[in-house]
Amino acid sequence: MSLKQRPSHHYYLFGCGLALLVILLGLGGLAALTLHRDRQAVQYPGAEHIFSRGVYHALPRHLLWVSRYHTADSVWTAYDWYARELSLMPLSLTNDGCVYLQGYKRWHYVTRSTNVTLCETPNGSRITVTRLTSVW
């Protein structure tokens, strides 16, 4: 009578590890795509992108990023767009021609604060968007 060899469990462990790796890569790709779409959502149409800077040292709990744009449109045209598209409310108006807008949203354990500064320049408007996403 011969003994039958039992299948090795190494193949099962390898398969589970490979499935976990695929899931983690998929989640990472989804997070990167979400971040990219989130940044595109706050860019004023037709505005020239000047710079973006993310502050990731507070991950995984906080994600802060700042983007600056320039547009030939007036501050009030950009103001109307940001108020309508991002549901932002005016925070203050200064004597130097800047308008500050702010908005706050909460989804279960995630909060997002969006601040927009619109300033008149000789050839249009300078837009600075600051967005803080926090997980509680």
Short description:
The chain has 2 helices and 6 strands. Strand 4 and strand 5 (110-121) form a beta hairpin.
Give your account of this protein's structure.
The protein has 136 residues and is of the alpha+beta class. The protein has a domain at 42-135: TATA-Binding Protein (2-Layer Sandwich), CATH 3.30.310. It has 2 helices and 6 strands. A 6-stranded antiparallel beta sheet has the order 1-2-6-5-4-3, covered by helices on one side. A hairpin with a 2-residue loop joins β4 and β5. The longest helix is centred in the N-terminal third of the chain and has 32 residues, at 10-41.
Give me the CATH architecture of one domain, please.
2-Layer Sandwich
Could you give the order of strands across the largest sheet? 1-2-6-5-4-3
Number of strands: 6
CATH domain class of one domain: Alpha Beta
The proportion of residues forming helix, as a percent range, comes to 25-40%
